[in-house]
UniProtKB/TrEMBL annotation:
Residues spanning the signal sequence: none
Annotated keywords: Cell cycle, Cell division, Cytoplasm, Cytoskeleton, Hydrolase, Mitosis, Phosphoprotein, Protein phosphatase
Family, per entry: Belongs to the MPI phosphatase family.
Molecular functions (GO terms): protein tyrosine phosphatase activity
Source organism of this protein record: Trogon melanurus
Residue ranges with Basic and acidic residues bias: 20-32
Gene: Cdc25b
Protein name in UniProt: M-phase inducer phosphatase
Region (Disordered): 1-60
Length: 248
């Protein structure tokens, strides 16, 4: 019997069945007739012969209800090491390969609504220092360059004291359009390189949708100082030029 298909990159403990169709049992009592192949000119039609889909332990054919249950229970996406589902509710963002959270969800984390499940939440502000100093989310750490984030997160990885709790990392920049997403991908790439697949130091990464620009007007009380300094501020043109050169 054939096993349910699984991606070669997916560990054997995670089963994500992909089924194009279900072959119904060819019992006498079933009202469904078997499909026939289309006949090619000059060739008689033949009944399509399909191999049965079997469970992995050789216990016989899976019933349609069982397969449907497997699919129904497989709707949650797993974090980077495939150990569990993402904790925070995500929203659609610019980059389909990344997980975005709303400003409201960020505040839920900041106010301790997930404290029983999260031991440490690292908010990485990827903006340039003059932007960060002009106003940032309370508790955020300013890591604008790749070497900064590699030094902070990967040289000595953050490990939870309670193994049942999580360490999550949330990235953002001014709009979370370029710098934040790029840094998120960088951390995942470096994390993969220094671990045996699929293990990761930080399997649960998020990006704050809309960045500081969208967060600040709604939740000024969670910012310090309570202000917003844009990247293209008139008084910091030279700083912007220097940091852009350094980041190349």
């Amino acid at each position: 019997c054939r096993q349910l298909f699984r991606s070669p990159s997916m560990p054997s403990s995670v089963i994500r069945p992909i089924l194009k169709r279900l072959d119904r049992p060819q019992d006498r009592d079933t009202p469904v007739k078997p499909k026939r192949r289309r006949s090619v000119a000059g060739t008689p039609s033949e009944e399509a012969v399909a191999e049965p889909v079997c469970d992995e332990e050789g216990g016989g054919k899976l019933r349609g209800e069982e397969i449907e249950n497997l699919l129904a229970n497989d709707h949650r996406e797993l974090i980077g090491d495939f150990s569990k589902a993402y904790l925070l509710q995500t929203v659609e963002g610019k980059h389909q390969d990344l997980k975005y959270i709303s400003p409201e969800m960020m505040v839920a984390v900041l106010t301790g609504q997930f404290s029983s499940l999260i031991e440490s939440c690292v908010i990485v502000d990827c903006r340039y220092p003059y932007e960060y100093e002009g106003g940032h989310i309370k508790g955020a750490v300013n890591l604008p360059m790749e070497q900064d984030v590699e030094e902070f997160l990967l040289k000595k990885p953050i490990v939870p004291f309670d193994a049942s709790k999580r360490v999550i990392v949330i990235f953002h920049c001014e709009f979370s359009s370029e710098r934040g997403p790029r840094m998120c991908r960088f951390v995942r790439e470096k994390d993969r390189a220094c671990n045996e697949y699929p293990h990761l130091h930080y399997p649960e990464l998020y990006v704050l949708k809309g960045g500081y620009r969208e967060f600040f007007p709604q939740y000024q009380s969670h910012c310090e100082p309570q202000d917003y300094r844009p990247m293209h501020h008139e008084d910091f043109k030279e700083d912007l030029r220097k940091f852009r050169l350094k980041s190349r």
